Amino acid sequence: MAKKPKKQPQSGSTPATVALTAAGTPFTVHAYEHDPAAPSYGEEAAEALGVSPDRVFKTLVADVDGRLTVAVVPVAGSLDLKALATAVGGKRAAMADPAAAERTTGYVLGGISPLGQRKRLPTVLDASARAHGTVCVSAGRRGLEVELSPEDLAALTDAVFAPIGRG
């Protein structure tokens, strides 16, 4: 049985929500009880929030030709590393070292948000996000998501839209 999400005030409780508030961007915070045994953080979020997995996006950090890059893709699929490299003008991409991803973004795995990162990284948002009025992404910790328009997400992260998701 899915846990009922709790509405949280739209105040700055994480760097992501602080960034959204400072920008004056409309957003909604959704909290749920995170289960450490859940096999997939993103699928857990979709189920807990009662949202289709194609509207919940995971934030992945990849290494493209030696440069860390953020990929935001639906939790229902996976990241196409070759497409990510192409989207940022690179040749090769691989998943980043988890410690480097955490250190650079300021977030822990499973809670990495594309917003409010310690160091701004090149960001690519899967083009499928444009099919939705709003999408959900991590708010900066496990069990906390923010819902906002894909256009606002792209504007705040200087993201480009590209078909980088599979599946």
Short synopsis of the structure:
The protein is α+β, with helices and mostly antiparallel strands and 167 residues long. 25% of the residues lie in helices and 29% in strands.
Secondary structure topology:
Layout: E1 6-7, H1 15-23, E2 28-31, H2 41-49, E3 57-64, E4 67-74, E5 78-79, H3 81-87, E6 93-95, H4 98-105, E7 123-126, E8 135-141, E9 144-148, H5 150-157, E10 160-162, E11 165-166
Parallel strand pairs: 4-7, 7-10
Antiparallel strand pairs: 1-2, 2-9, 3-4, 3-6, 5-11, 8-9
Q: What features would you describe in this structure?
A:
The chain has about 170 residues and is α+β, with helices and mostly antiparallel strands. It contains 5 helices and 11 strands; from the N terminus they run E-H-E-H-E-E-E-H-E-H-E-E-E-H-E-E. It has a 5-stranded mixed β-sheet with strand order 6-3-4-7-10. It has a 4-stranded antiparallel β-sheet with strand order 1-2-9-8. Strands 5-11 form a two-stranded antiparallel sheet. Strand 8 and strand 9 form a beta hairpin. The longest helix has 9 residues. It is globular. The relative contact order is 0.23. The N terminus is likely disordered.
